[in-house]
Amino acid sequence: MENKAIVIIDLLNDFVTGKIATERAKNVIPNLRKLVEAARQNNIPVIYSNDAHYPQDVEVTRKWGEHAIKGTEGAKVIPELEPKEKDYVIEKRTYSSFYETGLESLLRSLYDGKGVKTLVLGGLHTNICVRHTAADAFFRGYKIVVANDGVEAFTQEDHEEGLKYLEYVYNAKIISVDEIIKEII
Ligand code: ZN
How much is the pLDDT for 175? Predict the structure, then answer.
């Protein structure tokens, strides 16, 4: 894993305790806390990719209903994973963390302009935003690592199917947070 960045996707109040919450989301909190703390200690960039919807966004009007509306409490990162001063926070308006967000230019600017090469993905949901972010990362040539205990979905089936898809289609390395930390240090 060279020039890594950690991307934490949609660990927002509405996804964990609010409008489209699933109990399963809570499974990832202690693991992702460990991951971001280890990353910060090792100067690995931590990037939060957060839904920040307008009410007219297609995702809101056609699919999920109101969630993570920009500026609301529901759109804030959960308190347990609150971004720290040196972390990066980007706002997205649909599933992919790359789609019209500026993530790509941020990734290029890191490591003294040499750019990020490997993206370590965690967050919600395995088969939706994590999948679409992985797709866009793959198209752009990034290596992809997914923390299998740092992502979750609405059901066990969605989660497992989601992990298999990430591995099969994007050649993502699927490993635990502890294994990722071992490689970082
Ligand atoms: Zn959304």
Answer: 97
